[in-house]
Every structure is written in structure tokens, then in C-alpha cells.
Amino acid sequence: MKALVVYSSQTNNTKKLAEAAAAELNAEIVSVGAAGDISGYDHIVVGFWLKGGGPDPATQEFLPKLSGKKVFLFATHGGAVDSSHVKNGMSKARELAAGATVTGSFSCPGEVSVKVQAAVAEKNPKAPWLHDAPAAAGHPDENDLTALRKGLQDSFS
To answer: pLDDT-derived band of residue 119, with 50, 70 and 90 as boundaries?
Structure first.
């Protein structure tokens, strides 16, 4: 099995998970903007951050290109894992990858800087994840990395 990890990361939260996924799978790793020909890969692992109720814009453009591939999705976000914001974002990712076979998914909080939280707090309406953002401090942590590795193992076995 030949796997590729493709990720988009604004604050290095998703990159941290992508690097752990690539190490776990002995896979190549590339940012979504540099992802070229994916035809030689059996399984594509896609990491992204959530924005506006869905994957970041670059990942939104990439996911529809995965038709016919086996795909594992993972995301980082400022919200709580069980929040509607996160659930809707992951559902949107699955919709965008509709031509692919999604073999698994994972999400965890990613630290949001105090500066970004303050800027978002000034907006009206406020982002739905803002009240959860302080709890994301220090994430992704080792427990998150372990959970991602477990999800990948389950997906690839």
C-alpha cells in the first residue's frame, strides 16, 4: 500500500498531526498546495483546519479530486470535538470527497492564539467555536496524536 499525507495548516496544528500520520504510515507528506499527481497512491490521508463550517478553502478545492481513492480525513479546530460546528465541518469534508471511499476520520482541538481569539471576539456575530477556544490550548497534544495513530491503524487494517 502506498499512502500520501496531504495537509493544510495555518498555525502548524494540522501539520503536527500530518507529520505523525506520515511517520505512522511511512508515507510521503506534502502540503495541499503542492499536491500534484496522486494517481500512484492507494490511500490519501487529508488533514485540514475548519473555517466557516467546513474545511479550509484550499482543502475544499482538493477533496473533490479524490474520486476513486481511499481517503482518511482529519481536522483541527478551535471548537469542541462534539460541537455542531465541528460535526458540520467534518460532514462538509465528506460531501466534498463524495467520489472517494472515506475509510475513517479524526478531529481534535488545535490551539488558537489569544490574538486570533481577541480579533474574532470583535466580530458580530461571533464565531461558534470561540467559547470553546480556550480549552484548545496545548492541543494537539500527545493524547491527540495517539488517537490519530489508532484511527489510522483501524482504517488501514
So the answer is: confident
Q: How far is CA 137 from the centre of its chain?
A: 17
Whether residue 70 has pLDDT greater than 90: yes
How much is the pLDDT for 123? 86
How far is it, in rounded angstroms, from Cα 72 to Cα 141?
20
What grid cell was written down for 47?
488533514
Mean pLDDT of 66-83: 95
Distance in angstroms (rounded) separating the CA atoms of residues 153 and 157: 6
Does residue 74 sit in helix, strand or coil? Answer: strand
What is d(CA 14, CA 34) in angstroms, rounded to the nearest whole number?
A: 16
- What is the pLDDT at residue 43? 95
Q: In angstroms, rounded to a whole number, what is the distance separating the alpha carbons of residues 109 and 34?
A: 25
Tell me the C-alpha distance between 25 and 17, whole Å: 12
Q: What is the mean pLDDT of the segment spanning 22-28?
A: 97
Structurally, at CATH architecture level, domain 3-156 sits in 3-Layer(aba) Sandwich (3.40)
Q: Give SS3 for 77.
A: strand
Rg (CA), the chain: 15
- Please state the separation of Cα 102 from the chain's center in Å: 13
- Please state whether the peptide bond connecting residue 125 to the residue before it is cis, i.e. omega within 30 degrees of 0: yes
